[in-house]
Amino acid sequence: MSSANNLKKSLLVLALATTLAACSDNDNDPVVEEPVVVEPIVVEPVISEFTITFSNLTAGQPLSPLSVIAFEDEAPWTFGTTASVSLEMLAESGANEEYLSYESALAAVSAEGAIGPGETTTVIITVEEQETLNLSFAAMLGNTNDAFTGLSSLDVSTLEVGGSLSRTTTAYDAGTEANTETAETVPGPAASGEGFNEIRDDTADIITMHPGIVSNQDGLSTSALGVEHKFDNPVSKIVITRTQ
Questions:
Q1: What pLDDT score was predicted for residue 11?
Q2: CATH number of the domain that 138 lies in?
Q3: For labelling alongside 153, which of 9, 53, 105, 201 has CA 20 to 30 A away?
Q4: Predicted structure pTM score
Protein backbone atom coordinates (compact mmCIF):
# COMPACT_ATOMS: atom_id res chain seq x y z
CA MET A 1 0.00 0.00 0.00
CA SER A 2 2.86 2.29 0.86
CA SER A 3 4.57 1.52 -2.45
CA ALA A 4 1.41 2.35 -4.37
CA ASN A 5 1.08 5.66 -2.57
CA ASN A 6 4.69 6.46 -3.26
CA LEU A 7 4.15 5.65 -6.94
CA LYS A 8 1.10 7.91 -7.11
CA LYS A 9 3.03 10.70 -5.43
CA SER A 10 5.93 10.29 -7.87
CA LEU A 11 3.57 10.41 -10.85
CA LEU A 12 1.85 13.51 -9.44
CA VAL A 13 5.15 15.30 -8.92
CA LEU A 14 6.27 14.35 -12.41
CA ALA A 15 3.02 15.64 -13.94
CA LEU A 16 3.27 18.87 -11.98
CA ALA A 17 6.88 19.40 -13.03
CA THR A 18 5.99 18.76 -16.64
CA THR A 19 3.14 21.28 -16.45
CA LEU A 20 5.35 23.91 -14.87
CA ALA A 21 8.05 23.35 -17.43
CA ALA A 22 5.54 23.75 -20.23
CA CYS A 23 4.20 26.92 -18.68
CA SER A 24 7.74 28.21 -18.21
CA ASP A 25 8.60 27.57 -21.88
CA ASN A 26 5.46 29.37 -23.07
CA ASP A 27 6.22 32.39 -20.92
CA ASN A 28 9.79 32.72 -22.16
CA ASP A 29 9.18 32.19 -25.89
CA PRO A 30 9.64 35.49 -27.75
CA VAL A 31 6.62 36.86 -29.58
CA VAL A 32 7.37 36.84 -33.28
CA GLU A 33 5.64 39.72 -35.09
CA GLU A 34 5.30 40.04 -38.79
CA PRO A 35 7.54 42.88 -40.14
CA VAL A 36 5.72 46.01 -41.20
CA VAL A 37 6.62 46.91 -44.77
CA VAL A 38 6.66 50.68 -45.28
CA GLU A 39 6.40 51.67 -48.90
CA PRO A 40 8.69 54.62 -49.74
CA ILE A 41 6.93 57.83 -50.70
CA VAL A 42 8.13 58.94 -54.11
CA VAL A 43 7.80 62.69 -54.62
CA GLU A 44 7.91 63.58 -58.29
CA PRO A 45 9.65 66.90 -58.97
CA VAL A 46 7.50 69.73 -60.27
CA ILE A 47 8.83 70.83 -63.65
CA SER A 48 8.55 74.40 -64.85
CA GLU A 49 8.73 75.06 -68.58
CA PHE A 50 9.29 78.44 -70.17
CA THR A 51 9.02 79.35 -73.84
CA ILE A 52 11.16 82.35 -74.80
CA THR A 53 10.54 84.36 -77.95
CA PHE A 54 13.56 86.43 -78.97
CA SER A 55 13.31 89.18 -81.59
CA ASN A 56 16.17 91.07 -83.24
CA LEU A 57 15.17 94.73 -83.45
CA THR A 58 18.27 95.98 -85.28
CA ALA A 59 18.56 96.81 -88.97
CA GLY A 60 22.05 95.46 -89.59
CA GLN A 61 23.28 93.39 -86.68
CA PRO A 62 22.99 89.58 -86.68
CA LEU A 63 22.66 88.20 -83.16
CA SER A 64 24.32 84.98 -82.06
CA PRO A 65 22.18 82.08 -80.77
CA LEU A 66 20.40 83.21 -77.63
CA SER A 67 21.81 81.65 -74.45
CA VAL A 68 19.36 81.12 -71.57
CA ILE A 69 20.46 80.13 -68.06
CA ALA A 70 18.17 79.35 -65.11
CA PHE A 71 19.65 79.97 -61.66
CA GLU A 72 18.73 80.77 -58.06
CA ASP A 73 21.02 83.47 -56.70
CA GLU A 74 24.19 84.44 -58.57
CA ALA A 75 23.72 85.63 -62.16
CA PRO A 76 26.22 84.54 -64.82
CA TRP A 77 26.95 88.19 -65.60
CA THR A 78 26.24 91.54 -63.96
CA PHE A 79 26.47 95.10 -65.26
CA GLY A 80 29.50 96.95 -63.91
CA THR A 81 31.55 93.83 -63.14
CA THR A 82 34.41 92.10 -64.97
CA ALA A 83 33.19 89.65 -67.59
CA SER A 84 33.98 85.99 -67.08
CA VAL A 85 36.08 84.23 -69.73
CA SER A 86 32.97 82.37 -70.88
CA LEU A 87 31.07 85.64 -71.38
CA GLU A 88 34.14 87.06 -73.13
CA MET A 89 34.00 84.14 -75.57
CA LEU A 90 30.33 84.76 -76.23
CA ALA A 91 30.69 88.53 -76.62
CA GLU A 92 33.74 88.32 -78.91
CA SER A 93 32.79 85.33 -81.08
CA GLY A 94 29.19 84.30 -80.36
CA ALA A 95 30.36 80.87 -79.13
CA ASN A 96 28.32 79.91 -76.08
CA GLU A 97 29.42 76.38 -75.13
CA GLU A 98 31.55 77.51 -72.18
CA TYR A 99 28.99 80.12 -71.14
CA LEU A 100 26.22 77.51 -70.92
CA SER A 101 28.41 75.43 -68.60
CA TYR A 102 27.91 77.99 -65.83
CA GLU A 103 28.49 76.09 -62.58
CA SER A 104 25.51 77.59 -60.72
CA ALA A 105 23.05 76.88 -63.53
CA LEU A 106 19.92 74.91 -62.70
CA ALA A 107 19.38 74.50 -66.44
CA ALA A 108 20.85 76.04 -69.59
CA VAL A 109 19.84 76.04 -73.23
CA SER A 110 20.79 77.65 -76.54
CA ALA A 111 18.63 78.67 -79.47
CA GLU A 112 19.40 76.69 -82.61
CA GLY A 113 21.06 79.39 -84.68
CA ALA A 114 21.90 83.01 -85.20
CA ILE A 115 19.06 85.47 -85.68
CA GLY A 116 19.22 88.05 -88.43
CA PRO A 117 17.95 91.63 -88.35
CA GLY A 118 14.17 91.71 -87.95
CA GLU A 119 13.94 87.97 -87.28
CA THR A 120 12.46 86.09 -84.33
CA THR A 121 13.43 82.77 -82.78
CA THR A 122 12.01 80.60 -80.00
CA VAL A 123 13.74 78.52 -77.34
CA ILE A 124 12.31 76.39 -74.51
CA ILE A 125 13.91 75.80 -71.13
CA THR A 126 12.69 73.34 -68.48
CA VAL A 127 13.81 73.35 -64.86
CA GLU A 128 12.70 71.88 -61.54
CA GLU A 129 10.46 74.33 -59.71
CA GLN A 130 12.35 76.46 -57.17
CA GLU A 131 11.30 78.88 -54.48
CA THR A 132 13.59 81.39 -56.17
CA LEU A 133 14.02 81.08 -59.91
CA ASN A 134 15.71 83.56 -62.23
CA LEU A 135 16.52 83.54 -65.93
CA SER A 136 19.49 85.19 -67.61
CA PHE A 137 19.91 85.89 -71.34
CA ALA A 138 22.84 86.78 -73.59
CA ALA A 139 23.59 87.04 -77.33
CA MET A 140 26.39 88.73 -79.27
CA LEU A 141 25.93 91.52 -81.78
CA GLY A 142 27.90 89.86 -84.57
CA ASN A 143 29.23 92.94 -86.39
CA THR A 144 31.05 94.33 -83.35
CA ASN A 145 34.17 93.59 -81.36
CA ASP A 146 32.54 92.54 -78.08
CA ALA A 147 29.02 93.89 -77.90
CA PHE A 148 26.26 91.70 -76.53
CA THR A 149 22.68 92.05 -75.42
CA GLY A 150 20.43 90.32 -72.92
CA LEU A 151 19.13 90.43 -69.39
CA SER A 152 21.33 89.75 -66.38
CA SER A 153 18.54 88.44 -64.17
CA LEU A 154 14.77 88.17 -64.49
CA ASP A 155 12.75 86.72 -61.60
CA VAL A 156 10.14 84.25 -62.88
CA SER A 157 9.39 82.60 -59.52
CA THR A 158 5.81 83.81 -59.35
CA LEU A 159 4.97 83.55 -63.04
CA GLU A 160 1.91 81.33 -63.35
CA VAL A 161 1.27 78.84 -66.14
CA GLY A 162 -0.03 80.82 -69.11
CA GLY A 163 1.46 84.06 -67.81
CA SER A 164 4.01 86.11 -69.76
CA LEU A 165 6.69 88.72 -69.17
CA SER A 166 7.98 91.02 -71.90
CA ARG A 167 11.28 92.95 -71.82
CA THR A 168 13.41 94.88 -74.30
CA THR A 169 17.19 94.75 -74.06
CA THR A 170 20.05 97.16 -74.64
CA ALA A 171 23.54 96.67 -76.05
CA TYR A 172 26.37 96.09 -73.58
CA ASP A 173 30.12 96.29 -74.04
CA ALA A 174 31.84 93.28 -72.46
CA GLY A 175 34.92 95.44 -71.83
CA THR A 176 37.27 92.71 -73.02
CA GLU A 177 38.28 93.95 -76.48
CA ALA A 178 38.91 97.44 -77.80
CA ASN A 179 36.26 98.62 -80.23
CA THR A 180 38.61 99.02 -83.17
CA GLU A 181 36.02 97.67 -85.64
CA THR A 182 38.83 96.49 -87.92
CA ALA A 183 38.33 93.70 -90.43
CA GLU A 184 40.72 91.54 -88.43
CA THR A 185 38.78 91.82 -85.17
CA VAL A 186 35.10 91.76 -86.13
CA PRO A 187 33.84 88.18 -86.58
CA GLY A 188 30.45 88.92 -88.15
CA PRO A 189 29.57 88.83 -91.85
CA ALA A 190 30.63 92.44 -92.31
CA ALA A 191 34.28 91.48 -91.84
CA SER A 192 34.62 87.75 -91.00
CA GLY A 193 37.59 88.51 -88.78
CA GLU A 194 38.89 86.95 -85.59
CA GLY A 195 36.49 85.92 -82.86
CA PHE A 196 37.67 85.21 -79.34
CA ASN A 197 41.11 86.43 -78.31
CA GLU A 198 42.24 85.77 -74.75
CA ILE A 199 44.19 89.02 -74.66
CA ARG A 200 42.08 91.77 -73.09
CA ASP A 201 43.01 95.12 -74.58
CA ASP A 202 40.00 97.20 -73.50
CA THR A 203 41.06 99.58 -70.76
CA ALA A 204 37.67 99.33 -69.01
CA ASP A 205 37.61 95.54 -68.38
CA ILE A 206 34.09 95.78 -66.98
CA ILE A 207 30.64 95.39 -68.51
CA THR A 208 29.27 98.80 -69.52
CA MET A 209 26.69 100.26 -71.87
CA HIS A 210 27.95 100.01 -75.45
CA PRO A 211 28.82 103.43 -76.94
CA GLY A 212 27.72 102.41 -80.43
CA ILE A 213 29.52 102.05 -83.73
CA VAL A 214 31.72 104.63 -85.39
CA SER A 215 31.55 103.59 -89.04
CA ASN A 216 34.00 104.29 -91.86
CA GLN A 217 31.51 106.85 -93.17
CA ASP A 218 31.75 108.61 -89.81
CA GLY A 219 35.46 109.15 -90.25
CA LEU A 220 36.95 105.97 -88.74
CA SER A 221 38.81 104.93 -91.86
CA THR A 222 40.07 101.65 -90.37
CA SER A 223 36.55 100.47 -89.52
CA ALA A 224 35.15 97.56 -91.48
CA LEU A 225 31.65 98.68 -90.52
CA GLY A 226 29.29 100.99 -92.37
CA VAL A 227 26.36 103.08 -91.25
CA GLU A 228 24.08 100.10 -92.02
CA HIS A 229 25.61 98.28 -89.05
CA LYS A 230 24.70 100.96 -86.56
CA PHE A 231 22.09 100.21 -83.92
CA ASP A 232 19.91 102.04 -81.45
CA ASN A 233 18.59 100.74 -78.16
CA PRO A 234 16.65 98.59 -77.64
CA VAL A 235 18.32 95.97 -79.81
CA SER A 236 16.10 93.01 -78.95
CA LYS A 237 12.81 92.00 -77.38
CA ILE A 238 12.35 88.97 -75.13
CA VAL A 239 8.97 87.47 -74.23
CA ILE A 240 8.92 84.75 -71.57
CA THR A 241 5.79 82.58 -71.25
CA ARG A 242 5.41 79.87 -68.65
CA THR A 243 3.93 76.90 -70.50
CA GLN A 244 4.12 74.32 -67.70
A1: 47
A2: 2.60.40.2130
A3: 201
A4: 0.82
